[in-house]
Write a structure and sequence with these properties.
Layout (H helix, E strand, L loop, with lengths): L25 H7 L6 H29 L6 H42 L4 H33 L1 H4 L10
Helix pairs in contact: 1-2, 1-3, 1-4, 2-3, 3-4
């Protein structure tokens, strides 16, 4: 055996490493369907995504409390974990992707209306398909952009040696 020991495997995070993670994308799905479902249903998907974000932030706060149980700065570390996760998730999982999919779908519906003679129902379903298919392509760039934004601003206020819980 070498002088360096292997690091213990990271604990599994059910909110990040299971199907529960997809609840954070509920509003993007809702925005994709905006042209064909009632608006209240679209807004309810924002409720699902916001609930996911809130639960994740609370979970990261609890994990920070356990990890820093005997630290003098425990309260501050818990607060940072909750605030950082909530803001990061709110931007990266709800606000920016929801706006992005909304604009992709609005532009698609408009362009299909001006460039085709397809029936309205076909244009709306095509818009929905375009919105749904765009989701996998926007996630990583938005995540990276939010990391950059937070690393360049808010995270400078509570700079720590550790990786932020939201990354």
């Amino acid at each position: 055996m070498g002088s360096a020991e292997a690091a213990p495997p990271a604990a599994r995070d059910p909110l990040r490493d299971s199907w529960l993670r997809y609840l954070g994308y509920a509003n993007e799905v809702g925005e994709s369907f905006r042209a064909i479902v009632p608006v209240w249903l679209v807004w309810s998907t924002y409720g699902v995504a916001t609930t996911y974000v809130t639960v994740d932030a609370i979970d990261k706060g609890k994990r920070a409390a356990v990890a820093h149980e005997h630290s003098s700065g425990k309260r501050a570390r818990v607060a940072v974990a909750v605030v950082d996760t909530f803001i990061w998730q709110s931007l990266a999982s709800v606000a920016i992707p929801g706006f992005t999919i909304n604009r992709i779908c609005a532009a698609s519906l408009y362009l299909l209306g001006t460039m085709t003679r397809w029936p309205v129902s076909v244009r709306k379903w095509t818009t929905t398909a375009i919105g749904l298919s765009a989701i996998p392509f926007i996630v990583k760039p938005i995540d990276r952009s939010v990391d950059f934004l937070m690393d360049s601003s808010l995270r400078k206020l509570y700079s720590t040696e550790e990786t932020p819980p939201s990354s």
